[in-house]
Structures are given as C-alpha cells and as structure tokens.
UniProtKB/TrEMBL annotation, chain A:
InterPro entries (UniProt xref): AAA+_ATPase (IPR003593), ABC_transporter-like_ATP-bd (IPR003439), P-loop_NTPase (IPR027417)
Keyword annotations of the record: ATP-binding, Nucleotide-binding, Transport
Signal peptide positions on this chain: none
Domain of life: Bacteria
Domain called ABC transporter: residue spans: 2-227
Protein name: ATP-binding cassette domain-containing protein
Membrane-crossing residue ranges in chain numbering: none
Keyword Amino-acid biosynthesis among UniProt keywords: no
GO molecular function: ATP binding
Keyword Nucleotide-binding: yes
Similarity annotation: Belongs to the ABC transporter superfamily.
From TrEMBL, chain B:
Protein name: ABC transporter permease
Spans traversing the lipid bilayer: 21-40, 52-72, 109-132, 144-165, 170-189, 218-243
Organism: Streptomyces macrolidinus
Highest taxon of the lineage: Bacteria
Keyword line: Membrane, Transmembrane, Transmembrane helix
Amino acid sequence: MITFDSVVKRRGERHVLAGISCEARPGRVTGFLGANGAGKSSALRILLGLDRATSGRALIDGVPYARLRDPMRTVGAVLDGSGAHRCRTGRAHLRWLAHAAGIPLARVAEVMADVGLTEAAGQRVGSYSLGMGRRLGVAAALLGDPPVLVLDEPVNGLDPQGIRWMRTMVRSRAAQGHTVLLSSHLMAELEETVDDIVIIDRGRIVAQGTLTEVTGAHRTLESAFFHLTRTEDGR
Amino acid sequence: MTTAFRALRAEGHKLLTLPSARLAIALGVLLPAGIAALNARSPHWSGGVDAGFTELGVGGAIGAILLGVVAVSSEYTTEGEESAATRQIAATLTATPARLVALAAKLTAVGLLALALAAAAGVATFTAVHLVRGEPASAVTAGRVLGVQVYLLCTAWLALALTVLTRNGVVPMAVMIANASVMSVTYLLSKVTDAAHYFPDAAGPHMFLRGVATGAHVAPVTAGLVMVAWVTAVLAPAAVVFCRRDA
C-alpha cells in the first residue's frame, strides 16, 4: 500500500505539488495521469526519498522509503530511464545493485532473461536503445522481487512490442496481489492498463477513483481528463 | 552494519567496472613511474633525496584526483533524451537510501583504491629508478612511504568532496589537475602570501619530500594535519549538502 498524505513540494515560489493525498492499493494498478510538468514525477521522487517534501508524507506500508529495512526487496522503481552509467555493461549495472541490496548475483541473469536482455547483458549501456534502457530499468526494479512497483512513464520510448510487454508485466504483478503505481500522460495506454486513476493538474489532484468512476459520464478517459483539467480561459 | 557493508561492496564494484576509474588508477601508477624513469635517464640526473618521491607527488596525485572526481561525477552524468543511460544517482539512492551510508561507502571504496594506487605507484616508481640507475633510490623509508599513502588518500578524498559539491567533474578536475601539473597557482600565490604554503598541494608533499626549497618549512606531521584539515573542511559541507539536497 502506497500513501500520499498532504504532500507539498515548493521550489522557490513555485508549487510543484500543492498538497496531494491519495493511495495505491495492493492487487491493483494505479495510474497518475497528468500533463508534462503536472507534478507526477516529483510525487514519485518524493515517495522514493530522492526529493524532499516541503511538508506532508509519502509512505510505503506506513513507512517512509528511506526507513525501509530492505528497500529493494520492498519496492522496485523505474524513474527516468535505467539509472545506468553509459560506460558500464547492463550486467555490471545490475550486479552493483544486487551487491547494494544483498541479493544473490544469480538473480541478475534471471531478471535479464525476464526482460529479454540476455543477449545484450555484456554490452555497454551506451549502446542500448531507449527501449532496452527501459527494460534494464525494469530488470533492476525486479531484482528483489518486490511487492510494490513504482514506474515513471514506463512506456515512453518503447516500441509496440515493448508497450505490450510492459502492460502484461504490470497486469500480472497486480494479479499476484502486488501494488503497482505508474505515471503516464498517455491516456489510451492508461485506459488499457490501470484499475484506479489519479488525475494531477498543476500540482493538485483534480479527480481520483476507479477508472469507471473517473471517466464517469464521459465517453473516454481522454474527454474526462480535458473536462477536469480545463483552464478558466477555456483552453 | 550489513547495509554499510553491502553499500561498500556496491561502490567497490561500481568503481572497478567504470572505465574512467580504471584509467585513473593506471595513470596514477604509470605516470610517476614513467616520469621517474625519464628523469633517471637524463644526463642532468642529480639523484638526491627526493628521487621518485617528487614524481609520486605529481603523477600519483593526478591519478588520485581523477579517481576521486569520476567516482562522483559518474553518478551525475546525463545523456540526451534519446539515451538509454540516465543519471545513476537515482539508482544509487534508491538502493541505499541512507545518504550518509551511501557517501561513507563511496569514501571508503575510493580510499581503499587510492591506497592501492599509492602502493602500486610507489613500487613501480622506485623499481623504475632502480632499473634505470642500477642502484636503489636513496632514503626510501617507511615514514616517507606512509607520507605518500596519506597524501594520495587525502587528495582523492578532497577531489571526491569537491565533486559532491559541484555534481560535475569539470571544475574540480580543471582546478586540481591544472594546479598539480600544468601551472601551480599555489606556487605563484606563495610568492605573494605565506598562507599559500598551507594549500593542500603545497603542504601535503612535505609529508614525504625532504629537499624542497620553498620559503616555509612544514614538518611531515604538520603537513599531514594540514591535509586532514583540508579534507574535513571540504567534506563536512559536502556531506551536509549531499544529505539535504534533492538528488
């Protein structure tokens, strides 16, 4: 279970997040939907302890990420690409992560096979495509076989095959009772993947609930989104 | 404790699989040995009490600086939007969210490699002098060898701490390496003010150089304390900033 409790993030004068409260529950895929710059990534970075909230709390099973006893066995995260250095091989990247988390090195080959990177394991990350980088990020997230997954824009840069693979992976994790929180600005993709949805607009939550609840009387999630995030000047 | 040990293993693995860190170690070993060999072949060879040590103080330091810088700058390297590689710091801090532990692990890993670099550089440099001259370099004492170790360790840590503050390797590398090799700003400043004798690259080598003819005499132990003071002065704010700022 992931909980955001009145999370505020200010950068200088700007309110990146103006007090968001929402949840992502086990056995369900929850999607953050919002335009670029709406605050989705900031919320996820605060959840993972990378950025500091100005006020409020983001918790995983009631505990801040930084205080988890075994973070990589609890939460798997993919933020903004692979997080791998270009000069290191994909395998070496996963190995240092396994060392850091106390995960047996045998697991590295397993997750590389899971994401279809076995053949590229010995290549430097600099030679990977964007899609391979995403897969490497997912491999890292799966290293500790965690019950919670956090994915920032997971299908960006993926080809159709990759998008389908990602959707299947996410759905099967939720079917196993895991918690999945992902962010996206791709509405059609979210409609195919998520159970619950949280719409963020300029740092505020404008709607949350099940996909059906949020779509409401609108024909699609997209028309609901534009209705909910309409600005006063009628854009 | 286990978290700290795991983080140290991860940092060690990271450094050993980073080509620029390997290059730093190779440079730090080969540069002083190479320069010492060339100097020993020169017809102007004067031998002297600092043969080999002078080269370790410059060439070894370049390797140590590079090692300290790339250990941190590699965390913040960014590529274009279309690249599969992204800033590693996010992965580092999700794997080890306790920031002080993450930083201590990096310091320890860099420190251990800097000590190994210093040991290998010492052996290579004095062997080079011995081979070229047909006789061992003079006055290679345990105390002076320890001095080289401490100097290169502190230099690597100083470079690391500076790079934590800048999050980019260019400035610390330019300042420290240019100062150590191309043109010593410290040396020029020492003509103006005596305080410059207590800059790290001016005071530190007094731990192992015996024949330096500079204005101020700094005793080996004092030199070591000056280095420790510099490291502390830069590392303390770097640690505070690293723990507080958004990754």
